[in-house]
Amino acid sequence: MPPPSELCNVSMQESSTSVTVPLPVFVILGTLSVSWIASKWTRASCSFEALNERLQFTENLINENSSYHMDLLSEAGPAFKSVLQEIYLKIENIKTNQYYEPAGISNIPARILFRYRQARGMRSCHSRLCQLEHEIKAYAQVTREARAVASHQPMPFQPRVQNY
Predict the structure, then answer these.
(1) Against a cut of 0.85, is the pTM above it?
(2) What secondary structure does DSSP assign to 71-133, as a single string?
(3) Where are the membrane-spanning stretches (predicted)?
């Protein structure tokens, strides 16, 4: 079996106490260091841009949903009024930074409740901003469903809520 110095590609010079390390080791270490630093920098800039996009998207959803607040409440039947009130209360609480978990929504038809739970369950993040974003997407889906039922029109196929 070769001595350990040959296994590690390290040659000891007997005439001095210095250690000679082959050039590829420095290249590999340098490349790893540079790529690690670059990945941290890229990840930081990407997350900042993504944060701005998420904030803008969330703000647009809030504005879109609150703009037809009274119309939906006046058109919807009694089965939808409680959930619609929860939707808009939730939106107002998000606007004033008073986030809360909504009460039970057992009076919603199963088809709409399934879509709400499906959209809500797709959040895979733990940050408060990301959770709020997915909550609003889920509520927006329920709101679109309620609007379609209130106007007695079939709901067009909606793609599932996508994660970022």
Answers:
(1) no
(2) HHHHHS-HHHHHHHHHHHHHHHHHHTT--------TTS-HHHHHHHHHHHHT----SHHHHHH
(3) 20-38
